[in-house]
Design goal:
Shape: rod-shaped
Order of helices and strands: HH
Strand content: under 5%
Number of strands: 0
Helix content: 40-55%
Radius of gyration: 30 Å
Length: 85
């Protein structure tokens, strides 16, 4: 079943919401903390992340790449057998 990314660990197999808080000594305080945590998780799940904008390589980076490719091709071209005449 597709669930929104609320938080998988707080939803059990029967699709019931489960929050366990024992930070404080009193049940009412723990209940308030649990509700605030649930609210925070819901707010975080509703946030849509910004999409990344693809950038083009700059002219200088393209030229550097071509220059390095030229150097590498020269090195590889010179690896052949030497023929003496």
């Amino acid at each position: 079943m597709n669930r929104p990314k609320l938080h998988e660990s707080i939803i059990n197999k029967e699709d019931c919401l489960f929050l366990d808080v024992d930070d404080e000594r009193y049940q009412e305080k723990n209940r308030e903390i649990a509700l605030s945590r649930l609210e925070n998780r819901i707010v975080q799940a509703l946030v849509i992340p910004k999409k990344r904008i693809k950038t083009k390589p700059t002219r200088a980076s393209k030229e550097r790449k071509l220059k390095l490719k030229k150097i590498r091709s020269e090195i590889k071209k010179n690896r052949g057998k030497i023929i003496l005449q």
